[in-house]
Amino acid sequence: MDWIEFLLVVVRVLLAFVIWLLSTALLIWGERRLVAKMQVRHGPNRLGPFGVFQVLADGAKLFFKEDITPRGVDRAVYFAAPIVSAVVAFLTFAVIPFGGTFTFAGREMPLQVWDPEIGLLWFLAMSSIGVYGIALGGWASGSKYPLLGGIRSSAQLISYELSMGLSMAAVFIWNGTLQASEIVAAQSGTFWGAVPAWNILPMSPAFVLFHIAVVAEAQRPPFDLAEAEGELVGGFNTEYSGAKFAMFFLAEFMAVITMSAIIVTLFLGGPSGYSFGLEGNWLALLQFVYFVLKVLGFVFIFVWLRGSLPRLTYTRLMDLGWKVMLPIALVWVLLTGFVVTFQQVGTNQSFFTVVAVVAAATLTLMILAPFFRSREPAGDEGGGGGGTPVARPPAGGGGGRALVPATETSPVDVDGGRTTEREPETVGAPRSEL
Amino acid sequence: MTETVLFWIIAPLSLGTALSVVVLRNPVHAALMLVGNFFTIAVLYAVMEAQFLAVVQVIVYAGAIMVLFLFVIMLLGVERQLDFGERIRGQRAAAVFLGVVLLAALTVGVAGPYLGADSACPTTAEQQTEPAASPQACRGLAEANADGNVFGVGRLVFTDYVWPFEVTSVLLVIAALGAMVLGRRAEQDSDLVDVLRRERVPAGGVGDASYQAELQQSLEEDPR
Amino acid sequence: MLAEYLPLLLLAVVAFAFVGLSVLVSARLGPNRPNPVKEAAYESGILTEDVDVRQSRFSVRFYLVAMLFIIFDVEAVFLYPWAVTLRSMGWYGMAVMGVFILLLFETYYYVLRRGGLDWD
Lengths: 434, 224, 120
Known about the structure:
The structure holds three protein chains of three kinds. Chain A is mostly helical.
């Protein structure tokens, strides 16, 4: 590796870092503007064009705040938790290809920090580490509300990590690789010569599952129980102020961008798109633009969800993750494997085929049958007495549908909804000062 | 070269974190040191170009098992006065003895076959022309990772080691059973214990010995 | 080889530098006027005795969730190499994983019916 190559590595690392940091800042501003529009109010509009510098003002304010360390904290852990959260947020986007491959002085520079063989497993590893930032932040604060918020949201994170990991596995099986660049390459063709061969079509149930899981994973409404202001006084970060709070905040919002980028990589062909006859560096630039546009689409959906959906209750949240999404994801993984094997091997191995088809059919029936049986109201141990109503079984793969049914025992939590949007100006004000 | 340097940086870190797991008094701090230890081991895997193993180490050990540990520690409430005395007479001596035995067994059984001259990777030209015939002979990273590290791992797990792989699944079933038995709640209707015996929950709670015996009997009669 | 990890290392250095500096510098920049009430744990404005909440106990549900998470996480981890090797193994690979997942589904169903997934 000579110095030019090294320089290119430095450039692309810094480029990724700056892009993600800037877009996070823009997201914080853009989300407030958008949600304001959805709620028929103005949002920040004073500082700079359309109030875009409001983020800078808020950031500066946070940095000059008093850094309060409450009495009961466990100092080392209290200090480490926000750092873990933020560093993990920065490291997560390392594997995402966010543009084409540029060529400088005969050397290639892909717009991707790191393209390892384990690819998107890196993202899973990082999000499993992200749990620590939240659990420890809540625990170290030595206060009731953060402890409750921390332990609840870490339970939420690990629950949805399962559906996330399984729906990713389905895509990996479909494309036969874990590497981000190869997943993108596998989606480069077209179906029937017109529709881009993105995974979103053949893998649509995985897409729906993954999208829901990712919203939960990013702790965004309607799954933002960690900071359910109505019930937990802000969740795990209640006792944090100043830059430490800012780090949690940064991690949370950067996750929105990173998660959208992961969705785009897995299901929407990453930075690929129609080339308009461009070549070389121009094409690479155009692909960067494609990537940004696709990510913006998903970021908009994140904001839209926040603007329109009330928060779930904790019971319902766990039910959705464990009773609806997990079984669907498992079945879908199995189904994908079956289809891939069928495509690959075909019906040549006739004996094996018969055995496999019978086995698969039996398997599917065995898996599905119990769910239909448990619907009987006079069930044995499951439905007796004041037992919890079991979540509705998956009807045809629409994972999002399970959000709707409400029972008399646990109505949808309306008062905790995001309609009482956190006022922008309180962003920097640590609640412990009030 | 780089590998050696990295090893000498990471190995002391690994040892240090492992020691502090034992030494630190606060269980949460000790658990965090264990997480740090898992990370250093993941780095060592990565240095040895076992990338998949490294990331799985982080996902499963640091991401799942240690979260369980933390939950359990928080569940029990930390910073209680713990009884550090010996519960069983001769516990410590036995622990030291068994530890030494385990170390010896691992060294002989796992590392032993790879300590001989045969298993060393050929360095000189004449060694390379004459590869050793023993099963432990050095294959070389290039051969092991020829189709990619993940593929190599997968091929081995699903062919040579398919039986341990399937047994793992049974192990997971048992783990779930254990978790359900330990984590059940007495008052809950869905808990089969109390559906059967709800009217007879004794004053001593479900932990009551006579109740447990009765329960066992009723379970044998009706294994529902 | 190891050079592959260079960009990741650089990113980690940049991230640590940014985060660490922000936290350290801002602690110096802000005012420092501690008082007992400000440093008390947040209790909805009610002044309470300082109780170490870290000694409080939690619902066993959280432990169950973590345990079940491990079980399914280990399963998912086996799926990743399988995803890569499936095409070279054909129906054999499908059968191997089918048995594995079937056993896990059995586990899942057992836990579901025992109420292990109910939150109430």
